Amino acid sequence: MKKSTLAALCFALILTWENHAHAYLDANSGSIIIQALIGGLVGLGVLLKMYWHGFLIKIGVKKAIDESEEETPEIEAEAESE
């Protein structure tokens, strides 16, 4: 067993060995925990939204959109009228 693995195991045992925790959660710390969880979920949602299209292309559900297909009809109509 590597020294770093043994040290991490000993550290985890030291942290979890105590049976009685002489601590409490007041209203402020509870709201901070809830706020952190909500913020993490919102951040995860934004991350998924940003990379969702690329993920669908990678697994083969969607085809990649060519830049020429992305042009809107308004842009094409303006180009034809000139």
SSE class? mainly alpha
Order of helices and strands: HHH
Cα-based radius of gyration, to the nearest Å: 26 Å
Mean pLDDT: 82
Terminal residue distance: 75 Å
The helix fraction, in percent, is: 55-70%
Largest sheet: none
- Indicate the proportion of strand residues: under 5%
Regions with little confidence, pLDDT below 50 for 5+ residues: none
Explain how this protein is built.
This protein is mostly helical. The protein has one domain (23-81). It contains 3 helices and no strands. The protein has helices spanning 3-17, 27-59, 73-81. The longest helix is centred in the middle third of the chain and has 33 residues, at 27-59. The protein is elongated and about 80 Å long. The mean pLDDT is 82.
Explain briefly what this protein structure is.
The protein has helices spanning 3-17, 27-59, 73-81.
Task: Fill in the keyword field for this structure.
single chain; 3 helices
Please give the structural blueprint.
Layout: H1 3-17, H2 27-59, H3 73-81
